[in-house]
Each structure stands twice: as C-alpha cells, then as structure tokens.
Amino acid sequence: MEPTLQINDHLMINKLSYGLRLPFFQLESVLQWSVPERKDVVVFAKGIPDDPATEINERTQAIIKRVIGLPGDTVEVRGTKVYINGSPLVDDQQAVWIHGGVKDFGPIEVPAGHVFLMGDNRDNSYDSRFWPEGPFLDVKKIKGRAIFLYWVWPLSGRIFSLIR
Questions:
Q1: Contact yes or no for 69/87 (Cβ under 8 A)
Q2: Which of 21-35, 53-67, 108-122 has the highest mean pLDDT?
Q3: C-alpha atoms less than 13 angstroms from C-alpha of 160 in its C-beta half-sphere
Q4: 116 contacts 128 by C-beta, under 8 angstroms
Q5: Distances, alpha carbon 66 to alpha carbons 25, 76, 78, 141, in Å
Q6: Mean pLDDT lowest for which of 87-91, 99-103, 128-132, 137-141?
Q7: CA dist list (Å): 31 to 17, 20, 35, 137
Q8: 86, 75, 83: which is closest to 128 by C-alpha?
Q9: Could you tell me the pTM of the whole model?
Q10: Average pLDDT of 34-56?
C-alpha cells in the first residue's frame, strides 16, 4: 500500500464499518449493515492455500488493500489504467505504477456480495489480479475499514492523518 502506508505504520481500524463479528471468533460477519465503497481501504484476512510460498495465519495476519470494484462492476486493467464499466477510474491519485503495469487483467464482472481489491503500489501488490482462488473477496470476510494512522516511525506529519 506504499506510499499511502509505510512498513511499520500502525492503523486505527473501524471494525463496525460494515457489519458485526463475534469477538474472539474467526468467523465472517454475523450481521451485515453496510458494504464497502469504492476507494475504501479495508483490512481482511485471506489464507492462500494454493500458494505454498505464502504462509498466512488468518488469526494473526491482516492484509490491507483498496476497494476498486463493487458488486456488478466490470473491472479491467490495461497498462497503468484501471477501467470500471468501460470508463477510466477517475481521481486515482493514490495509485503508483513504478514499472508501467505488470499484467493486463479482465474485463471481469464483480459478483454480488464481493469486491475487487488492489494495492496502491500497483506493480508490486499481490492483490485481486493475482489470487489463485479467484479475483474477488467476499465482503463478509472484511474485518474493518482503515481510519487513520496512530503511530508512524520516524515521527512525521503523517501521524494522526486520515487514510483516504
């Protein structure tokens, strides 16, 4: 998620943004009252059993990505451009493309109850485009929405800044 987030940044997460989860249980949401909006930065746990190179413990490993595609959207990535329903994604200033795009993707429609996610460091992000079990995340698996940075090192003007 660089440059939006840096390694060792500490974030405040709103775990009630989209639904209610039972504490101390690694379950999906038991009550869903909202869905993520495009460009929300969300936290989730996602085991990747088909990829032996990644060892993710769903109880402790938190992954953070930005919501790009919503249910019903058709998502396509060509070079360094992201297209939603055939139109370029506007106001995408968080996106950083260092190598000019590494993989074209889509077009593919986001199914109901799911989202399509990408990291802000688009060339170096293991995001929806690369997941072997499919490019979508069930919204019930989202643990919460990132709100603000409460600790950064070295200390800088980024501390207490809102995550957008």
A1: no
A2: 108-122
A3: 1
A4: yes
A5: 25, 15, 18, 14
A6: 99-103
A7: 11, 5, 11, 17
A8: 75
A9: 0.83
A10: 72
In our burial notation (b when 16+ CB lie closer than 10 A, e otherwise), range 42-54 reads bbbbbebeeeeee
Name beta bridge partners: 78: 81
Burial of 138: CB neighbours in 10 Å, binned 0-12, 13-18, 19+: middle
33: tokens are 């009252």
| Contacts of 46 by beta carbon, 8 Å cutoff, 6+ apart | 56, 58, 63, 131, 137, 141
3-class DSSP assignment, residue 54? coil
**Tokens, residue 89:** 């994604």
Task: Write the CB contacts of 27 (distance below 8 Å, at least 6 apart in sequence).
Answer: 21
Length of the chain: 164
CA–CA dist 63, 69 (Å, integer): 17
- Contact assessment for residue 130 and residue 48, using Cβ atoms and an 8 Å cutoff: no
